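User: I'm putting together a teaching handout on how multi-component assemblies are represented. Below are the sequence lines for each component of a complex, exactly as they appear in our records. Could you produce the 3D structure of the whole assembly as structure tokens, so the students can see both representations side by side? Please keep the chain order the same as the input.
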Amino acid sequence: MTTDSKPSMHIDPYERGWIIATIILLIVFAAAITVAGFAMGIQVPAPAGRVNPQTVAQEGQFATPGLRELAPGKYEAYILAQIWRFDPSEITVPAGSEVMFYVTSKDVQHSFSIDGTNVNMQIVPGQISRLGHRFDTPGEYRIVCAEYCGSGHAAMYGKVIVTP
Amino acid sequence: MNEPKKPDETEQFHPKGTILVLILFMLTLIALWGSVYLILLSRGVTV
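Assistant: Of course. Below is the structure of the complete assembly, with chains in the same order as your input.
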């Protein structure tokens, strides 16, 4: 009689193969995301500060929202989201411009998404969301609210016009 | 009269259909994930 008390673990070869393939896939996906985020510079939006949503439209940068030129080809845009529009709803920059968007809401939760770019931010009352993009190709880039914000949600849009 | 199979013989079963389904699942996952990743890259970097 054998008294082998050592626990033995049997894994079916097919099961082992599936586990290994899954782990490899997860490693590849994680590596691809890491490369995109840190080596290529595709970042998620960052909170840039806090504001009082009840007074944000009367004081500070959002009292006079709009586009400001910091240097040739470098801009910052302060945009106030509210039901159901962006203020301003249209900005124009020359091709090759780098625009940093600062967006907040004075009422409910919105989002700020620019078609054809990776700019896509959740806009929360009381918080300033920040994300930038370099517009190299001339054309019109539609800005949409991708967070359902009420009956006029579908009419909440704007555009970035990039001139040659 | 048939004799019952020995344990060694029953372990030789190869689940070919299941493997095919899992390979298709894996390829679909890679294709969908890869296409979204390429869209992400094609939209350019954020600043």
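A couple of points students might notice: The first strand of chain A starts at residue 46 and ends at 50. The CA atoms of residues 99 and 133 of chain A lie 6 Å apart.
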